[in-house]
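Changelog note: in this version the structure field was regenerated for every chain. One regenerated record is shown below for reference.
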Amino acid sequence: MGIMTRSRHPGSGLASSRSSDRNADRGAERSGAKAQHGSSPRQDQADDSGRAGRRPAKGGRPPAARGVLLYGLHPVAAAWTNPERRIHRLLATDSGRAALEPAFAAARALGLQRPEASPVDRMELERMLPPGAVHQGIVVDASPLPELGIEDLCNELESEKSAVIVALDQVTDPHNVGAILRSAAAFGARAVVVTERHAPETTGVLAKSASGALEVVPLIRVTNLARALTDLQQNGFWSVGLAESGQSTLAKLDLTGKTVLVMGAEGSGLRRLTMERCDAIARLPTGGPVGSLNVSNAAAVALYEVARLRE
């Protein structure tokens, strides 16, 4: 199964112009930023070289972030090589910069124009990030990815006979959502759908937990999950809710076509209206003294089961 990817070259037509305009309107792009001198296929992807190379004052805080701060080797490397990401600054220790050399080479091969790395020490990075953040000596300040909607997803998958996506009903922990994105990428899911409310923002914490998957699996936000499930059903998807009350296990269902795996928050599970919109309710074959799984673990098991059934 292929992955519906944000990291695509121009002309693929995945993101609608309305989605891109909506993302730009939020101001995260800071459209006044100037490109570097000269021209290249990706000239608008970089900040001006003078600002990119400026070192923060010793012992002081670096300039305020213009976008979202991503940190750690895998999230930063994935963002660095993603044509959809506009990179404002890269802050790196000597060891962090050395670890990113393969990503630098890959970006050059793609024709991406990126700012020079600004040298910093670990203490400077730790002042920028949440306590305990595992940054591995690397922080990048990047604009958010273009927003995608259910209509974009349905248009992209219209001609395909088989696809799986994950829908999350008010899962609020960024570590869980990030881990689910990582499993989605590993098992070929095409997108993860979350609600606009009661879902985590796309922060560095979520990106770190996703370990680079945020760049290749679209995270689609919807106002009303029940309505989004209806839209997907009208476009050929069969929705399966996962709950302990399911009469049959996931393995007994036909999951070979277009499928939405719908998962609820820990504790509260799927909301009533969400369950009513599902075509079937299934369970995982758990038991013993601990009869339930963390939602991210349950998503990984469910995605594995779907992939196994499609072999």
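Spot check on this record: The two ends are 10 Å apart (CA to CA). DSSP finds twelve helices and eleven strands in the chain.
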